[in-house]
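Why should sequence recovery work at all? Because a backbone constrains its sequence more than one might expect. Tight turns favour small or flexible residues, buried strands favour hydrophobic ones, and helices have their own preferences. The token representation captures these environments compactly. In the example below, the structure is given first.
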């Protein structure tokens, strides 16, 4: 048993003071340090630095580790020139991204307090790293392929990867999961088969959706920049699906849709009505010129969202605090203290609920995934603790996963 003492604890009831938590692999009690010492006299007592806040470990629901080698290869500014360079450099980038590089990025996430991440995997290359990293990993095996001719082969490869991730579920913190690449890149027949696999095994399900204006135009009109792309690389000139057909394919199973920046209010309302959620990647959206997700509309519709980094294919770091600061700047019209609280919630309790994990809250019975943030000075107003946490933190001062210390 461990007892962790800090000036503040972030709980579902808000920030509380003069309390500590007792935990083994789950949280056992939240009480005064004195009471906990009486209840657990043999516990290891850990005193945090002054002005520290105990948070549940942070959750990054959407990252592509296999693109960690990208620094300047991919063109930023606009979605289609970026996608062209992904096709051009994909083999080189994935080829030179070895386990050491991916493990280094898991460590960056760990230092920023991330105790769980959702790894979107196109090839299965990162499975070994995800088995070894201390974090919990929701391993999203991604299905891609719009050409019906190759669909069976691509689906077969996808199922092999799903099985490989299922086979390491027992001895690691891996949860097998399914990802659909996007509406424009997955044939509806294999899409439905993959959704059925997620349903059958109750696996978390995710899909990129309406990331760019080019995607919207292609799905609605069969025109625009993606038309030239498909003519050039795939020798086709018609989309395999449309927005409605794609959304309806997920009707009976809650799905984590990534981006949705170009979804309109009716589409967002539809997603909300079906129990879906959104992965919001502010820096990725900005760097690829995709626009701003109206999170104020999501709030009104009660459509849950997480804030996630996406991969280094469209980002400059996997530090979750860098992402939260970017979100503060991107959503410049939002009241800053309220926004800061919502952002913290989006990477803790909301993200855990979205991924179906029993962490994300400092609450008795929850898994003991914990990140301690040490503020630079005593916070003068309680309502600003979330904001100072976001603005002043680069790395956490302590971190526990399943009750074990890792930072
Ligand atoms: C496709 O198979 O249609 C596809 C693959 C990668 C990017 C875009 C489309
Ligand atoms: Fe992504």
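From this structural description, the recovered sequence reads:
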């Amino acid at each position: 048993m461990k007892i962790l003492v800090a000036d503040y604890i972030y709980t579902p009831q808000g920030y509380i003071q003069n309390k500590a938590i007792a935990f083994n692999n789950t949280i056992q009690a939240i009480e005064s340090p004195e009471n906990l010492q009486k209840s657990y006299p043999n516990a290891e007592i850990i005193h945090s630095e002054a002005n520290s806040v105990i948070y549940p470990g942070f959750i990054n629901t959407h990252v592509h580790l296999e693109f960690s080698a990208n620094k300047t290869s991919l063109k930023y500014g606009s979605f289609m020139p970026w996608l062209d360079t992904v096709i051009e450099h994909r083999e080189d980038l994935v080829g030179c991204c070895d386990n050491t590089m991916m493990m280094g990025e898991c460590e960056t996430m760990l230092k920023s307090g991330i105790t769980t991440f959702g790894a979107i995997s196109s090839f299965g290359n990162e499975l070994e790293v995800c088995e070894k990293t201390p974090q919990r990993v929701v391993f999203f095996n991604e299905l891609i392929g719009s050409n019906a001719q190759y669909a069976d082969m691509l689906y077969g490869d996808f199922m092999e990867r799903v099985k490989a991730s299922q086979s390491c579920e027992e001895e690691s913190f891996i949860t097998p999961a399914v990802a659909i690449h996007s509406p424009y890149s997955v044939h509806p027949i294999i899409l439905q088969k993959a959704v059925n696999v997620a349903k059958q095994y109750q696996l978390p399900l995710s899909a990129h959706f309406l990331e760019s204006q080019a995607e919207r135009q292609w799905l609605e009109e069969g025109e625009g920049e993606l038309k030239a792309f498909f003519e050039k690389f795939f020798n086709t000139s018609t989309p395999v699906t449309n927005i409605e057909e794609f959304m309806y394919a997920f009707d009976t199973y809650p799905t984590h849709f990534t981006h949705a920046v170009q979804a309109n209010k009716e589409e967002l309302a539809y997603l909300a009505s079906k129990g879906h959620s959104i992965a919001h990647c502010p820096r990725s959206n900005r760097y690829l010129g995709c626009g701003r997700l109206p999170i104020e509309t999501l709030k009104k519709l009660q459509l849950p969202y997480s804030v996630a980094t996406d991969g280094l294919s469209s980002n400059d770091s996997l530090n979750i605090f860098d992402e939260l600061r970017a979100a503060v700047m991107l959503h410049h019209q939002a009241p800053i203290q309220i926004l800061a609280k919502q952002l913290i919630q989006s990477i803790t309790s909301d993200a855990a609920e979205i991924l179906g994990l029993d962490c994300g809250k400092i609450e008795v019975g929850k898994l003991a995934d914990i990140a301690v943030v040490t503020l630079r000075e005593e916070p003068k107003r309680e309502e600003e603790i979330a904001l100072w946490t976001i603005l002043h933190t680069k790395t956490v001062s302590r971190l526990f996963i399943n009750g074990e210390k890792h930072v």
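A few observations help interpret the result. The two ends are 18 Å apart (CA to CA).
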